[in-house]
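Predict both folds.
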Amino acid sequence: MSTVLLATALAAIILREKADGTRGNGLKQSAWQPLCKISEELNKVGPNAAARLSKIATTAEDQSNTADRLTAFAMLTPDVNEAKKAVALAGLFRQLATENLQSLSGQRATKTAINAVAENSYNKGRIDEALTILGLAKNGGNGCLVQASDNNVATVAGNTIGGVQCSRKLTPPATKGYTDYDNIIGPEGWLTAHATTGNTDLSDTTGNKQCVPLKTHTNGLAAGDIGAELPLAHGLLTVINTDSGIKTVTATKGETTRTTRGNQWQSAYHGLKEIEALESAIATNVTENAENQGAHQEVINRAHTNKDELPASKPENLVL
C-alpha cells in the first residue's frame, strides 16, 4: 500500500513539474522595459565614437594651424627673442598635432572606436531581435510582454512597446558631440533594473498571460522540450529548461580594469569606457591645463636665454 502511495505521490510531483514547465508566463514590464532602455541608449555608440575621433582630428588641425601662424610670426617679427619663442612653440604645437594624427593613422584610436561600435551594435541587435520576437508573439489575449498598468499584453506599435520608447532599430541621435549614457553604465558595469537572479519577479502570474517562446516544454519555441538553457538578448534573459521561469544574468560588477573582459556585456561595457577615454588621450595644447603650463614656460625660458642669432633663412629650423 505504501509503495502505491509513494508511486502516486511521485507521479503527481512529476505531473506538477511538467505542468509548471509548460506555463511560460509573459514577462513583467519590470523585466522587459530595461531592455528597451539599453537598446535605445546603445543608439549613441556610433555618434559618440565619431565625435571622439572628430575631436582628435580637429584638435590636430588647430594645432597645425597654430604652428604655421607661429612660424610666420617668427619670420616677420624684428624682435629676435620673440622670434625664438615663436619658433620653439611652433615646434611644440607641430609635435602635438603629429601625436594626434598618429593616434588616428596608427589605428590606436580608430581601432578602439570601431571595435566598440561593432561590439555594441551587435549587442543591440540581439536585444532588438529578442524584443521583436517576444513583442509579436501573441495569441488572442496571451503574449510575452505584459504591461504593469493593467496586466494586459503590451501593444507593439511603431517605435514603442506598451507606450514605452522601444524602436528596436538602429536610430543614431542627431548630436554633434559626445552624449553621456543615461544611467546604463557605471564604473563596475551595467546599471539597469534587470540585474537580478530571481524568477518570480520576472514572470507575470496575475493575468496569467501565456508566452509560447518562454515555454520550456511541449509546444514551446521549437514545439517540444528544450534540452538546455535558452539565452535571449545575448544572455540578459535566459529561459530555464529545467524550470518554469526565466532568469536574468547579472551583468553588473564588470571588472574595472580595461584589460580584463568577462562576458559579452562586460566586454561591451569596457568598449564604451574606452570610447569615453579617447577624450583624455588627445594630446592637448600645453597651455590648456596647469600640468602643462610648466612645460610651456620651460620652452619660453629656453628660447629667451639662447643668445644665438636667428639664422637668416628658415627660422623654423632653429634648434634650441
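Second protein follows, with its predicted C-alpha cells after the sequence.
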Amino acid sequence: MKFLNFKNNRQKGISSIVGGIFFLVLMTSGFTVYYVALDTQSQMIDTQQIIADTGVAKIKEKFVVAASSDSGDSNRLSLQVVNIGNNAVEIADVWIINKTGIENATRYDLDYRDVSIPVGYSGNILENRAPLYLISDIYDIKIISSLGTIKSVEYDVAGGSNILNAQMVAIPQDVRFGENVTVILMVTNTGEFDVKEVRANTNFDVSPDQCRDPPNLIFGGPSNLAPSQSTMFFWDCILDPPLLNTITFTGNATGLLSGVSVDSNDASDSVVVRDFTSAGGTLILEQELLNRPEIFMVIPSPFGDDPNNLGLWGVNVVNPTPFPMEVSKVTITAITARPQLQDK
C-alpha cells in the first residue's frame, strides 16, 4: 500500500510562493533602482545642459560701460551701457566703491525700465532711478549682469570722464613780448562710444593773464568723434610784459554721450615771456602740418663763407603732433642745372 506525503507537498508549494514573492521584490527593487538612476542621470544631464546654455549665453553676452558725471547738475552720475553682443543684456545691480574714502562698497538697485539693453542698443542704466551724486573723488564702479558678467570702470570726478582725453601744447615755449603764442588743444575719444558735438569749453584760462586781448579761438569747431578719433582746437594771443613770467594755459573740452554731457580732463602747458634781446621761438603753422610731417631744407649761403652769410646746412622735419615721432628715412632728390659751355 502507498501513502502520499501531503506535508512535503504543502511545504514545496509554500516555498515556491515565497520564492516567487522574493523574486518579485528583487525585480521591483531592481526596476526602482534603475528608474531612480535614470531619473538622476536625466536631472544631471538637464543640469549640465542648463550650465552649458548659461555658459554659452555668458560668452555671447558682451557689453561695454562708460561713466560720466554732469558738473552742471552737482556731478550726477551717468552709466552708459552699450550691448555689442548677440543676446539681450539684463543688468542686475551696480556696486560703487570710493577708492579715496573710507566708506564701504555700496550696492545700488536699478529701475526695471533701465535694466534691459537690446542687441545693438545703448542706454543710461541710472536714468530712471533716484539720482546718484558724486563728490570729487576716484571711484571704482562695477556693473553686474543677471548672468554674472562683471564690468569695471574707474572714474575720477575731478579728472573728467574716462572717454575724452585732452592734451595741450603752447608754441613757442619762450615767446618774446609783443609776439604771438599759439595754444593747441588735442582731444581724443579714448572710449568705445561715439561722442557727439565735441567742442572746447569757454573757460579757457591764462594765468597770469598777460594776453593783450582775450585768447581767440582761431580753429576748431564742434566735431563728432568715433572711438580713437581726435580733433584739435587752436587759440592765439599776444603776450605783454612783465618779462620772465611763466604763463600757464589751461583748457578742456566737452561732448555729448547719448545725450549726456561728458567733459575731458583739464590740460595745460606753459610758456616764458622774454624781451627782444632773448632768444625766442619761431612758429611755423600751416594747414598741411595738421595731418602729416613737413620737411624744410636749409642750405648754406651761395655767396661764400662770409660770417654774415653762413647758414645752417641740414634737413629739418617738423612734427605737427604732440606725440614723439621717429624719422626712419629721408629721401633727397638733387636737380642740377645743365652745364654750360663756359663751365669747365
